[in-house]
Amino acid sequence: MLNDKKVLYSGMQATGTLTLGNYLGALKNWVNLSDEYECFYGVMDLHSLTVRQVPADFRKNARSLYALYVAAGLDPKKNCLYYQSHVSAHAELGWILDCFTYMGELNRMTQFKDKAAKHADNINAGLYTYPVLMAADILLYQADMVPVGVDQKQHLEICRDIAERFNNIYGEVFTIPEAYIPKAGAKIMSLQEPEKKMSKSDENVNATIRLLDDPDTIIRKFKRAVTDSGSEVRYSEDKPGVSNLMSIYGCVTGKTMEEIEREFDGKGYGDFKLAVGETVADELKPLQKRYEELMADKAFIDGCIKENDEKARYFANKTLRKVQKKVGLTEQIR
Ligand code: TRP
User: Fold this and answer.
1) What is the structure's pLDDT at 183?
2) Domain 205-292 adopts which CATH fold?
3) Index of the ligand 1 atom closest to the CA of residue 155
4) Which atom of ligand 1 is nearest to the CA of 134?
5) Strands lying side by side in the sheet with 79-83
6) What pLDDT does 67 receive?
7) Is 13 a pocket residue for ligand 1 (Cβ < 6 Å)?
8) For residue 127, which phi and psi values (nearest 5 degrees)?
9) Can you list the positions of beta strands (E) in 61-122?
10) Residue of 44, 97, 140 to mutate, ligand 1, most atoms within 8 A of C-beta
11) Which residue's alpha carbon is at the smallest distance from atom 10 of ligand 1?
């Protein structure tokens, strides 16, 4: 890399609108990593094609995701924020790695099984090889560290297996990446079914807080959040609803669960839910304002995309050329 920093790679799919879970579980942590690591964050639009997209909405969502990365505090001068589809090396390495991945391995992927069950009418080959494209994303940048949610851990393991297999045959081509699962806020649950992860694609609008929800909507959704029997604000396994709200509140304010219990001692769920709603609404206000400004400044965002696409292409192509050479593909005559 350019300096001695370790490389960090992550990204989100360019579908749907981000939730508070995506923000507290990922985006907010990413912002704190950019001093320590050389960071690459992709808008993973190729992965989004595994589900049929409406082209105009898809384009808008991808751009909106890009602007949210920046609005959340990722400085596009310090972090390489780019579109996956603008760097053709992803698809090219993806193909090569397909040839180093066994169907037996892919058959074991739990996310494939879940998604196949959910989209029984469109179990396409892309959905099946999704983890291989993801491995290509990571390995192209020689990433040391990959911050992901627990649901992506298996994909990171297969990525490591593919990289090790390749290195065993051809020598040290790829850096073997480590998963980085952040301690705080790793998993924010649905406000309606706190046993389930807060998901972008939940059909119940009250289950998720969207990053672009206005303050009244946010407060209303928290007021409607499912709580548990009893009336105490206490963190406990048998109180998944309240515990989830406490995690959210803790993530935003930096308070520990004990501090939160003390703060709301003697108060009921109603007061607590209102406090969480107001705190979250306040936390998101500056991000939302910045987002609106960025979406109105086409030239700025276009400039960021162009510059970072080029940077990503430079590093990705370096790895791709090396891989092509190793496997014996003939060099192009330039
Ligand atoms: N599969 C990831 C998700 O849905 C998105 C993703 C694609 C990703 N490629 C990646 C994450 C590479 C980390 C690294 O959340």
Assistant:
1) 65
2) Tyrosyl-Transfer RNA Synthetase (1.10.240)
3) 1
4) 9
5) 79-83, 37-44, 6-13, 145-147, 178-180
6) 98
7) yes
8) -60, -35
9) 79-83
10) 44
11) 134
Q: Which atom of ligand 1 is nearest to the CA of 9?
A: 14
Question: Residues with catalytic annotation?
Answer: 115, 197, 200
- Torsion angle of the four alpha carbons 320, 60, 13, 87, in this order, in degrees rounded to the nearest 10: 0
- Please say whether the structural domain 7-181+298-327 has been given the CATH code 3.90.1010.10: no
β-strand partners of 43: 12, 83
Q: Phi-psi region for residue 214, left (φ > 0), alpha (ψ -120 to 50) or beta?
A: beta
Are 129 and 106 a contacting pair, CB within 8 Å?
yes
Burial environment of residue 254 by CB neighbours within 10 A (0 to 12, 13 to 18, 19 or more) = exposed
Tell me how far the alpha carbon of residue 4 lies from the centroid of ligand 1, in angstroms.
25
The full set of domain ranges for the chain reads 7-181+298-327, 205-292
pLDDT along the chain (334 residues), means of 10: 85 91 92 93 98 96 97 97 98 98 97 93 97 98 94 96 98 97 74 93 93 97 93 92 95 94 94 97 98 98 98 98 97 84
pTM summary value: 0.94
Show the tokens assigned to 280: 């979250």
Residues 85 and 240: their CA atoms lie apart, in Å, by 39
